[in-house]
Amino acid sequence: MIFKICREALKEYKLENLSFIVLYIITISFFIGNIIYNFPVYSSLLYLMIIIIGTMFINNIFSLGVYIGLNSFFTCICIFLIKNTYIDKFKYLLCFGIVISIIFLKSYKRIKLEKEAIRRKIFEKTKFNELLDAILILKYNGLVVIECNKKANRLFNKKNGITGRNIEELLLSNISDKIDQSTLKEYLKKENKEINIFNQKLNNIWVDITIKKFYVLEECYVLVRILDVSPHKKYEEKIEYLAYHDPLTDLPNRRYGNKQLRLGIEKALKNETMLGAMFIDLDNFKFVNDNWGHEAGDDLLKQVAIRLKGVVRKDDLAARIGGDEFMVIINDIHQIDEISHVANRIMNIFKKPFKIKEREIYITSSIGIALVPEHGMNIETLLKNADKAMYVAKESGRNTYRIFDYTYNDEFIK
């Protein structure tokens, strides 16, 4: 037992405390010698006072177990010597009682402090594990995960956990803005020790990432905080969707249609291909509203939108631009026949009746078409010419389509 305590003591001492520990042991030896050889009582008391003071310090050097073990060992020796020598036992017992009382009080205080430290450590660990953000702590050298919380383990969903894994394998190569390990270290070397990476997709979850280095006793570590922003991102996407879509038909609205048309024009001019803009107006839609009410009119618009989405090509776009008017953008046209083919497919969706309030309603449409670059190379000119062509289709008896021609003038449209 004694040797075990001594071994632990030797393991735990710090170099700067070595001289104090040696002095403490020598003082105890002199004290024991005084008792054996019946030296003056006052010198023994002086040694006892040094031991008492030393006991206060040694309490902070060794662990609680070593401290209590050493004091218990020396207490047993001293009691044995006092019992078997012819000295004034009362004085020694009084002094030794003081030593024992101090040892007890110090031990009791330390036990309380250590219990509080354990409780605090458990609390901090629990708080760390229950954080809503994923937290990873890495060694700066090698950027390997040495600790993480539960949220981090759930986020990466690794069977054997993520401790011991490299950050590049886990994170840096799996986000949109790819960053390699050497680049990350270069960032961390700069005075700005915090790196923020926003709106990244990690394992199908939108996240914001903060990477920051910190020091513990001159040892450098890296903290990685990953915040799940999926709910916020979904809300943003919903707001954006509502801003660009018609709430009645769920088709893109005029704002989104114009935006895509502008991009389509730029692409067509760059690739030297054609683009078609179609204006579609429902014939006699007012009659439906006036006879069966606006609810019937809304129901009709919804059904037209569904049929339109079913006939436009994957790379094309159907949008509602207001009232009973729709727009279709046909991209990447190489021959005029392609636009005619799409127009005929759209005309065909009106051949079948629409079922409104248990009635079958037949309705037709008039379509005007303008092409890039022939009929305009900007959105304003193109839409204006497509609108003219649509009115010409109406004047021609409706239920037809017209491709813009420069012979269409304002007087004729009037």
Automatic annotation (TrEMBL):
<feature type="transmembrane region" description="Helical">
    <location>
        <begin position="90"/>
        <end position="108"/>
    </location>
</feature>
<feature type="transmembrane region" description="Helical">
    <location>
        <begin position="45"/>
        <end position="70"/>
    </location>
</feature>
<dbReference type="InterPro" id="IPR000160">
    <property type="entry name" value="GGDEF_dom"/>
</dbReference>
<protein>
    <submittedName>
        <fullName>Diguanylate cyclase</fullName>
    </submittedName>
</protein>
<dbReference type="Pfam" id="PF00990">
    <property type="entry name" value="GGDEF"/>
</dbReference>
<keyword id="KW-1133">Transmembrane helix</keyword>
<feature type="transmembrane region" description="Helical">
    <location>
        <begin position="21"/>
        <end position="39"/>
    </location>
</feature>
<feature type="domain" description="GGDEF">
    <location>
        <begin position="273"/>
        <end position="406"/>
    </location>
</feature>
<dbReference type="InterPro" id="IPR043128">
    <property type="entry name" value="Rev_trsase/Diguanyl_cyclase"/>
</dbReference>
<keyword id="KW-0812">Transmembrane</keyword>
<dbReference type="InterPro" id="IPR029787">
    <property type="entry name" value="Nucleotide_cyclase"/>
</dbReference>
<dbReference type="InterPro" id="IPR052163">
    <property type="entry name" value="DGC-Regulatory_Protein"/>
</dbReference>
<keyword id="KW-0472">Membrane</keyword>
